[in-house]
Each structure stands twice: as C-alpha cells, then as structure tokens.
Specification:
Blueprint: E1 12-16, H1 20-31, E2 35-39, E3 58-60, H2 62-70, H3 74-78, E4 82-84, E5 86-90, E6 96-100, E7 108-111, H4 113-125, E8 130-133, E9 137-141, E10 147-151, E11 157-161, E12 164-167, H5 174-180, E13 186-201, E14 214-219, E15 224-229, E16 235-242, H6 243-248, H7 252-262, H8 267-270, H9 272-278, E17 285-293, E18 296-297, E19 301-303, H10 306-309, H11 318-335, H12 340-370, H13 376-391, H14 399-405, H15 410-445, H16 450-468
Helix pairs in contact: 1-4, 1-11, 2-11, 7-9, 11-12, 12-15
C-alpha cells in the first residue's frame, strides 16, 4: 500500500472515466503538475475496432473552446470541425429558411465525438505525470480513505489510493452511487418521452448533399429531425420523436410512407433503400436528464460532466458545460491554492446552479427547435431581439448568444433573459397601444368612408391572425 498522502509532496488525482470530460480533465490536472491516473472501464477507443457508445454529433461553442484553449488544444480541434452559422429550417413543402445563430462572425462547430475523444486521450499521454489505464471497471471506493478497487476483464483486481477522486464516468456514474448512500444528497433523473435514432445522408457526386455550414432542422411540432455535417461530406441525421411514434413504424414501407409525409425532401438525399434498412438497424435510444447536488464529498471526491449533470442534447451544451466544469474547477484551484477542502465546497456552490439552469434550458430548447421555429411570432421576436442587440449591444443580449458565445454563468443568462423578455414584451405592447391610440385619434379627426374600409380591415385581421398563430 502507498504511504499516507500527508507525506507525499505531489497530490495524486484519480480521474474515473476516460470520455471527453475525463480526458480533458487529465490534461488540466497534469498541466497543474499533479500526478494523474485515468481509469476507463472500456478498452482504448484508439485501438478499438468498433467504438461503442453514443455518436450524436457534437456542437462545440465558446465555453468548450475556452477549456480546450487552456490546454493548447483549441486550434487543433477547431481545424477538424465544420462551422455552422445558422439553423436551416426545412418546411414541409421543401422550402429552406436560415435563422442565424448570432452575428456573421459567430458560429458553432460540428465535431466528431470519437475523434475528439481520441485527440484528448493522446494529448493527456503527452504529460509525463499522466497515466491512462483502460479495462479498469470501478468496483468500490471509499470517500474517507480515497481507496478504490478496480476489476479488469480477466477478473484481476487493482487497489489504488488517491488524494482526489474525480468522477467523470457519465450519466450512469459508478462514482455517484456512493453519493446516493449519503445524507442530504439531492438526486433526480428524468427520461423524456422522446427517443432518438441516427441515419446517414451520404455525399452526392463527392460533395455534401445539402449546404454544409448549417445545422439543418425539420421541425414538425411534436417531433423533428436534424442533420449535422461531417468532414467526410456526409451528414449525420438524428430523428427525435416520442417512443410510441417510433413503435408504430414496423415495416420498410411504413418508414418511406412516414418520411414522405413528414420529411419528403430528405428521401432522395438519404436514399429510400438506406432508409428502409437503417431505420431498423438500432432501436430508438433514450435520453435522460440528471440533476444532483452537492457535487463533492469532503476533500476527497468531486463529480463533473454527465456524472454531475447529464442534459438532453437540444442546446448543444452537454459537452460544452462538461468542458467548462474543467476550467471552472481549475480557476477555483488557483483561487484557493489547491486546498481541496475549500476548492470542492466552492466548486459545488458555484457550479450547481449553473448546471441546473442549462439542464432546464436544454429541455426548453427542444420545444423551440421542433415547434417555435415554425411560429411567425417567434421569428418576429427573434428579429426584434437582434435589432435591439445591434442598437444596445450591452443592454439586450439574446439568450442563445449568452449561452453559446460567452461564458456568462448559465443561471445568470437565464435571469437576464427573463428580465429582457418582460421588458421587450411590455415595450411591444406599449408601442402597439400607442399606435392604436394614435390611429383612433386620427380616425376621430378624419372619419373615413366605411364602405371603402371593409375589405382592407378583413385583410388586416387575417394577417394579424397569421402572424400570431404557429
């Protein structure tokens, strides 16, 4: 057994989970000069023939980029991503309409999950004080002693002691199970009634089948499909829909029928034969939202990434929030001079409200993506927000801009958005009331010929009704 941590000069950090957040965390801790050991239950994905796990494309934005920048990885990862400047909305009749994410210079990046994970693991290995251990499944650990037991696929066990255990082992975290046994630990998980299924849109004549620099969305009110571009000129299409709708479709012909009814323009691009086959390749996958607090136990263990806050994928912030965890923790380590008891308590205090806020926003954004983008009122409000942001850039900042293109704390962004929404809606109401009163005053001063007005009034009413209806 190793000697007690009091006598060691260097703190030993055990990162459990070698996914995106675990691998990035290893770089952060190693850069600090701490001894880091990463333990991953799966085999090394860089050697694996088949990489298991989720493959929903990732949307890298400012928070994630800042964390990558801190360990010198930003430029490398950005060069392997595809910029997406706007949502491209596909209506039922095939019409395409872009909704920009922000200013012309602002974009999010479509990046490949497996490739990013591989790059981060390789980067972690460049530090002499970092070691990667694969095929190490956590069996048990002690919050008091920092002692962990790992079991390997051949049945052998390994005992490791660490000063700090960092749980980055995903939504179904083995580390978090110990937290559940403790008093005053809050935990909730929510499965949404929708599942997701991935389909591939191949290149046409060696080129992208659709415009590549967009996140394509087919919003259909109660469900939707999205498509993100890949470097190999394919698009990964993800169909999000209630499970009971997925289950209604049982034959290849029904798949084509469903797509003809809901996404007719996508059939020639994906291919009818491919649709018939790919739809049944894997069943629809579930999506879970996890909230918990606090994120730490004493000075020994802390949760980050999906282990602390799994979110549904509709704000494109799951990875970005996990990467921001790393940079926030690092900033607090700096602030408290690596005093782990103080650092862990402060991390929970600071981070929990932000992660809960992004979990709620991700839920809200699903409704926006599949339904609100069809609404003329929503589009009108977007234009109003953008104009006001242009005129008063420091006073009015769209929610999406705060979340995606700044490091404004998530919960502060939500508070500001709610305040702005009230102010703008009241402003629009007063403007409309002022215009109406002005109109009434003019009518009283100059009464018109009623017979000439009847038809235009009907037209005006129908236009107003069309504007308000989704």
């Amino acid at each position: 057994m190793e000697e007690p941590s009091d006598n060691r000069q260097k703190k030993v950090v055990a990162v459990v989970g070698g996914g995106l957040v675990g691998a990035l965390n290893a770089c952060f801790f190693a850069k600090r000069g701490l001894d880091v050991e990463v333990f991953e239950s799966r085999e090394d994905i860089r050697q694996a023939k088949v990489v298991k796990g989720r493959s929903i494309n990732l949307a890298l934005s400012h928070r994630g980029r800042q964390a990558l920048k801190h360990v010198g990885m930003e430029e490398k990862i950005v060069s392997q991503g595809i910029p997406m400047h706007a949502r491209m909305i596909h209506s039922l009749n095939g019409k395409q309409s872009p909704i920009p994410y922000g200013k012309k210079s602002q974009y999010i990046l479509s990046v490949d999950r497996a490739n990013l994970n591989k790059q981060l693991l390789t980067e972690a290995e460049t530090y002499p004080n970092a070691k990667l251990n694969f095929d190490h499944k956590l069996q048990d650990w002690s919050a008091e002693k920092g002692l962990m037991t790992f079991v390997r696929s051949d049945g052998t066990k390994e005992h490791i002691q660490a000063d700090l255990i960092v749980g980055c082992d995903g939504a179904f975290s083995a580390i978090r199970k110990q937290f559940l046994r403790r008093s005053r630990f809050n935990y909730s998980q929510t499965y949404i009634p929708h599942g997701y299924m991935e389909l591939t849109m191949p290149p046409i004549n060696g080129e992208f089948a659709m415009k590549p620099n967009y996140l394509h969305i087919w919003p259909r009110n109660t469900f939707m499909m999205i498509a993100l571009p890949n470097l190999d000129k394919t698009f990964t299409c993800t169909l999000f829909m209630p499970f009971d709708e997925f289950e209604k479709i049982t034959t290849g012909d029904q798949v084509i029928e469903f797509f003809q009814k809901c996404f007719p323009d996508s059939i020639p691009l994906i291919g009818a034969d491919a649709l018939r086959e790919d739809y049944f390749r894997l069943p629809a996958q579930a999506m879970v939202s996890v909230k918990c607090s606090p994120y730490h136990i004493g000075d020994k263990c802390v949760l980050m990434g999906d282990a602390a806050h799994a979110v549904v994928p509709f704000y494109g912030q799951g990875m970005n929030a996990g990467f921001e965890d790393c940079i926030v923790f690092d900033e607090i380590m700096e602030q408290f001079n690596e005093d782990l008891a103080a650092v862990l308590a402060e991390y929970s205090r600071v981070r929990v409200p932000d992660d809960h806020a992004i979990a709620d926003l991700a839920m809200y954004n699903y409704v926006e993506m599949r339904a609100h983008v069809n609404s003329k009122w929503f589009l009108f409000r977007k234009h109003v927000d953008n104009i006001l942001h242009f005129v008063m850039p420091k006073t009015i900042i769209p929610l999406y801009t705060m979340v995606t293109f700044t490091r404004t704390r998530y919960h502060k962004a939500v508070e500001r958005w709610q305040w702005q929404d009230k102010v703008i809606n009241r402003g629009l109401l007063f403007s409309a009331a002022g215009a109406a009163l002005g109109g009434v005053f003019l009518l009283i001063k100059n009464p018109p010929d009623v017979n000439k007005l009847s038809i235009p009034a009907e037209k005006m009413w129908s236009r107003l009704a069309a504007l308000r209806s989704p």
